[in-house]
Predict the structure.
Amino acid sequence: MFQKILAFVFCLLFFLSSACAASGASEEVFFGPFQAEDLNGGGTVTDACYDNAAVTYVNFWATWCGPCVEELPALAQLGAETGGQAQVIGVLIDAADQRGRRDEQAISVMRKLLADANAQYPVLYPEGEVIREILPYITAIPTTVVVDRRGMILDVMQGSLSLNAWVSHAQQMLQ
Protein backbone atom coordinates (compact mmCIF):
# COMPACT_ATOMS: atom_id res chain seq x y z
CA MET A 1 0.00 0.00 0.00
CA PHE A 2 2.83 2.40 0.89
CA GLN A 3 4.44 1.82 -2.50
CA LYS A 4 1.16 2.70 -4.26
CA ILE A 5 0.88 5.93 -2.28
CA LEU A 6 4.52 6.72 -3.00
CA ALA A 7 3.95 6.06 -6.71
CA PHE A 8 0.97 8.42 -6.71
CA VAL A 9 2.99 11.13 -4.97
CA PHE A 10 5.83 10.72 -7.49
CA CYS A 11 3.37 11.01 -10.41
CA LEU A 12 1.87 14.15 -8.90
CA LEU A 13 5.31 15.63 -8.30
CA PHE A 14 6.36 14.79 -11.86
CA PHE A 15 3.34 16.66 -13.20
CA LEU A 16 4.05 19.67 -10.99
CA SER A 17 7.77 19.74 -11.78
CA SER A 18 7.04 19.45 -15.51
CA ALA A 19 4.66 22.39 -15.26
CA CYS A 20 7.29 24.44 -13.42
CA ALA A 21 9.99 23.53 -15.95
CA ALA A 22 7.69 24.60 -18.78
CA SER A 23 7.41 28.05 -17.24
CA GLY A 24 11.04 28.70 -18.24
CA ALA A 25 12.23 29.83 -14.81
CA SER A 26 16.02 29.65 -14.65
CA GLU A 27 16.97 30.73 -11.16
CA GLU A 28 19.62 29.19 -8.96
CA VAL A 29 18.19 26.55 -6.63
CA PHE A 30 20.05 25.46 -3.51
CA PHE A 31 19.92 22.24 -1.49
CA GLY A 32 20.45 23.11 2.13
CA PRO A 33 21.01 23.84 4.88
CA PHE A 34 20.32 20.49 6.46
CA GLN A 35 21.30 18.25 9.35
CA ALA A 36 20.54 14.53 9.29
CA GLU A 37 21.48 11.25 10.91
CA ASP A 38 23.98 9.08 9.02
CA LEU A 39 22.49 5.57 9.02
CA ASN A 40 25.70 4.06 7.61
CA GLY A 41 28.18 5.28 10.16
CA GLY A 42 26.38 7.08 12.89
CA GLY A 43 26.77 10.70 13.69
CA THR A 44 25.29 13.67 11.96
CA VAL A 45 25.82 15.02 8.45
CA THR A 46 25.20 18.67 7.59
CA ASP A 47 25.36 20.73 4.43
CA ALA A 48 28.97 21.53 5.41
CA CYS A 49 29.79 18.18 3.78
CA TYR A 50 29.65 19.94 0.39
CA ASP A 51 33.10 21.36 1.21
CA ASN A 52 34.59 17.85 0.96
CA ALA A 53 34.36 17.65 -2.86
CA ALA A 54 33.76 19.83 -5.91
CA VAL A 55 30.47 18.04 -6.59
CA THR A 56 28.22 15.97 -4.35
CA TYR A 57 25.83 13.35 -5.67
CA VAL A 58 22.84 13.09 -3.30
CA ASN A 59 21.27 9.76 -4.23
CA PHE A 60 17.67 9.10 -3.12
CA TRP A 61 17.08 5.35 -3.07
CA ALA A 62 15.18 2.50 -1.42
CA THR A 63 16.07 -1.04 -0.41
CA TRP A 64 13.13 -2.42 -2.45
CA CYS A 65 14.34 -0.71 -5.65
CA GLY A 66 16.29 -3.13 -7.86
CA PRO A 67 18.06 -0.46 -9.97
CA CYS A 68 19.00 1.41 -6.78
CA VAL A 69 20.66 -1.66 -5.33
CA GLU A 70 22.39 -2.52 -8.63
CA GLU A 71 24.12 0.88 -8.79
CA LEU A 72 25.46 0.82 -5.20
CA PRO A 73 28.89 -0.60 -6.19
CA ALA A 74 29.29 2.07 -8.90
CA LEU A 75 28.35 4.86 -6.51
CA ALA A 76 30.76 3.40 -3.95
CA GLN A 77 33.63 3.82 -6.44
CA LEU A 78 32.75 7.26 -7.81
CA GLY A 79 34.89 9.22 -5.35
CA ALA A 80 38.00 7.14 -6.04
CA GLU A 81 37.45 7.26 -9.81
CA THR A 82 37.33 11.08 -9.73
CA GLY A 83 40.29 11.54 -7.42
CA GLY A 84 38.00 12.66 -4.62
CA GLN A 85 36.52 15.51 -6.65
CA ALA A 86 33.07 13.89 -6.49
CA GLN A 87 31.41 12.35 -3.46
CA VAL A 88 28.17 10.46 -2.83
CA ILE A 89 25.64 10.87 -0.06
CA GLY A 90 22.63 8.58 0.01
CA VAL A 91 19.16 9.24 1.38
CA LEU A 92 17.26 6.05 2.22
CA ILE A 93 13.63 6.89 1.58
CA ASP A 94 12.29 3.67 3.08
CA ALA A 95 14.08 4.22 6.40
CA ALA A 96 10.77 5.68 7.60
CA ASP A 97 7.46 3.84 7.20
CA GLN A 98 4.24 5.35 5.84
CA ARG A 99 3.47 6.82 9.28
CA GLY A 100 6.85 8.50 9.52
CA ARG A 101 8.23 6.02 12.05
CA ARG A 102 11.75 4.65 11.81
CA ASP A 103 11.84 1.31 9.95
CA GLU A 104 14.64 -0.67 11.58
CA GLN A 105 14.15 -3.60 9.19
CA ALA A 106 14.78 -1.41 6.13
CA ILE A 107 17.79 0.15 7.86
CA SER A 108 19.18 -3.32 8.61
CA VAL A 109 18.72 -4.36 4.97
CA MET A 110 20.40 -1.10 3.89
CA ARG A 111 23.46 -1.83 6.02
CA LYS A 112 23.83 -5.30 4.50
CA LEU A 113 23.43 -3.96 0.95
CA LEU A 114 26.03 -1.26 1.57
CA ALA A 115 28.45 -3.75 3.11
CA ASP A 116 28.02 -6.08 0.11
CA ALA A 117 28.71 -3.15 -2.24
CA ASN A 118 31.65 -1.91 -0.13
CA ALA A 119 29.90 1.47 0.05
CA GLN A 120 31.35 3.64 2.80
CA TYR A 121 29.52 6.87 2.05
CA PRO A 122 26.94 8.40 4.42
CA VAL A 123 23.28 7.44 4.01
CA LEU A 124 20.91 9.91 5.58
CA TYR A 125 17.65 9.37 7.41
CA PRO A 126 14.88 11.03 5.34
CA GLU A 127 13.51 13.73 7.58
CA GLY A 128 13.23 17.47 7.89
CA GLU A 129 15.18 19.60 5.45
CA VAL A 130 16.74 16.63 3.68
CA ILE A 131 13.34 15.73 2.23
CA ARG A 132 11.46 19.03 2.34
CA GLU A 133 14.06 20.94 0.31
CA ILE A 134 14.38 18.39 -2.45
CA LEU A 135 11.00 16.65 -2.64
CA PRO A 136 9.82 18.62 -5.68
CA TYR A 137 12.71 17.16 -7.68
CA ILE A 138 12.07 13.51 -6.82
CA THR A 139 9.72 12.00 -9.36
CA ALA A 140 11.33 8.54 -9.59
CA ILE A 141 13.57 6.27 -7.58
CA PRO A 142 16.51 6.40 -7.81
CA THR A 143 16.91 10.14 -8.23
CA THR A 144 20.27 11.79 -7.79
CA VAL A 145 20.69 15.50 -7.19
CA VAL A 146 24.08 16.95 -8.11
CA VAL A 147 25.19 19.79 -5.85
CA ASP A 148 28.24 22.07 -5.95
CA ARG A 149 30.28 23.34 -2.97
CA ARG A 150 27.82 26.18 -2.38
CA GLY A 151 24.87 23.79 -2.28
CA MET A 152 23.57 24.92 -5.67
CA ILE A 153 21.75 22.19 -7.59
CA LEU A 154 23.60 21.59 -10.86
CA ASP A 155 21.58 18.66 -12.17
CA VAL A 156 18.83 16.20 -11.26
CA MET A 157 19.15 12.70 -12.68
CA GLN A 158 16.58 9.93 -12.64
CA GLY A 159 17.40 6.25 -12.95
CA SER A 160 20.51 4.23 -12.29
CA LEU A 161 23.82 4.42 -14.13
CA SER A 162 26.92 2.29 -14.61
CA LEU A 163 30.25 3.30 -13.12
CA ASN A 164 31.47 4.58 -16.51
CA ALA A 165 28.35 6.72 -16.90
CA TRP A 166 28.70 8.13 -13.37
CA VAL A 167 32.36 8.98 -13.96
CA SER A 168 31.56 10.56 -17.33
CA HIS A 169 28.83 12.68 -15.75
CA ALA A 170 31.14 13.73 -12.92
CA GLN A 171 33.83 14.77 -15.40
CA GLN A 172 31.28 16.95 -17.20
CA MET A 173 30.20 18.55 -13.92
CA LEU A 174 33.82 19.22 -12.97
CA GLN A 175 34.61 21.18 -16.16
The chain has a mean pLDDT of 84. Residues 2-22 form the longest helix (21 residues). The two ends are 44 Å apart (CA to CA).
